[in-house]
User: Fold this.
Amino acid sequence: MKLIAAFSLALCHTISSATYASDNDEDCQFNPTVVIQSAASAIAETYVLADKAQSVSLALSEMASSPEALRLCRDSQSFAKLITEKIRTLSGDKHFYLEPVSPNEDSNNWIAQWRAEAPKNNYGVKKLELLPGNIAYFKLSSFHTFENARQSLAAAFTLLQHSDGLILDLRNNGGGDSDTATAILESFVDPTNPLPYVIETREKQHSPERIKELPWPAYGTQRPMVVLINGRSFSASESIAFSLQQLGRATIIGSASAGGAHMMDAPQTLPFSFEIGIPSSRPVSTLSKELVNWEGQGVRPNIETSEQEILQVALEVLKK
Assistant:
């Protein structure tokens, strides 16, 4: 499985003003035209949807020398935000991002910040409690690397094992490491049956890697469970909800999720200490001929309800 979010740092570059976006602007820190053209080329070569990759690359190249981009040659953060929004608009894919990186400015790197804050966020294990009727409530805020998160997850699943039903809350969960998400999914499904999707790149399809042995007690397939989602459930959290729904293992409750199915390898380094994250693979359902995955439309809940009523609805479903 691939990482939904991974990063590598590029070295800062110091170059002469003759190579800047404007020969008359000695205060420019980078050349927007070169960065945009490099991003466009990377998208054409890498994006999982080959046809769309070409159209996105061409449209992005057309703004390489636009005044809108050139005027931001002193502001790498604003430039990165502008180009990210442009690529996401052109592609309809929320996984794309472009950002400046520097070994001396980790505060500018959202992935570095996310990882640095992981311990105090208990590696995504946000809340665990036992509700009336011996129903367990388990909230996950994100998925950190399997190696880092396994201890917290093992403790949580150990506490869950004696409950009679489960509410898995993935609302506002923006995703993260797909290996960790797969391990959590494996805790609720039959390990002898295939998962309900394959992974597709431009070149091939392959079955997702299975977890040979979970480092915690599996919750199993017999006890009832519901999964809570909303418009801020994204990426790896959507993969769990989608898979459990496809398998008929859980009732999905809430509102449609954000719609980010595509998956990414490590970001690619661009000139002038920028990097770009490009989705290079996608899950494809093996159980539905009509529905490839949840890209762009989100996971649709079995029961749609408001945030105010969602827990009550979940409890009612589990008590039936």
Remarks:
- The radius of gyration is 21 Å.
- Confidence is low (pLDDT under 50) at residues 1-24.
- The longest helix spans residues 76-91.
